[in-house]
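Reviewer 2 asked us to include a model.

Predict the structure of this chain.
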Amino acid sequence: MTEPLSTQPWLVTGAGGMLGQDVLARLARAGEQIVALDRTALDLTDADAVTRALERHRPAVVVNCAAWTAVDDAETREAEALRINGDGPANLAAACARTGAVLLHVSTDYVFGGDADAPYAEDAPTAPRSAYGRTKLAGEQAVLGTLPDRGYVVRTAWLYGTGGPNFVRTMIKLEGVKDTLDVVDDQRGQPTWSADLAGLLYDLGRRALAGTAPAGVYHGTSSGETTWYGFTREIFRLLGADPDRVRPTTSAAFTRPAPRPAYSVLGHGRFAAAGMEPPRDWRAALIEAFPEIHRVHMKENPA
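Predicted model (structure tokens):
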């Protein structure tokens, strides 16, 4: 157990989600005081409620895991998504500015255009192509503009874990009912275990409190890269299934309202400035994460 750097608590919004649960578990292992707020306990779009929550609990660090994540629905409900992804972080940032808290805000690769051919640096120009990406960029801008010295934006992508629906659990389910599976092979990214991201957020928050991590943008994705097809083949291999049952296809086979980035690989250059190692390779993380994800999936979906 590490020694807490502050007697004040860590406040986690979106605490009921997959990432929020992993952040709470990481904080608990470290012996930190925790205030866990899910969407029923705190409406981030209510500025007064956000102010009251932070003034009441006086956290040292706020970790914002709350978000509108329904990418396709945002195309026709952008104003609603913006309230959560844009106004919510703005309200948190304003409250943190008044109370002196550090804010760690989780964002996404969708703020980029997805048309690069080399990993996006943290300061690469943003160019969202979807409503979801636009709303998440608005949240980033609010945090960085209001908290230039205590605001941290951590972009992630292709997130999976134990505590909620995600790609790994979907593929486990489909392997049991499909003879073959067609999976997109023209989108590249970095599968990222939510528990690894939770550890990164905790480390970054501690370094922020110690004054050793500069505020700004960080990329919270695993190292390495693959396609959804390559990711699925690895999942099948870990299941003991034949990876050749997974067949490559193109994005054109799966038309969706919101465009998916063709290239979502993020660079990790800023970790050096914070004295942190880049995240580990996606395969190593998946190998460690898989047994528990599989166990929980089978418990919740008995044959």
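The first helix runs from residue 18 to 29. Helices lie at 18-29, 47-57, 78-99, 131-146, 167-175, 194-210, 228-239, 282-300. We have added this to the supplementary material.
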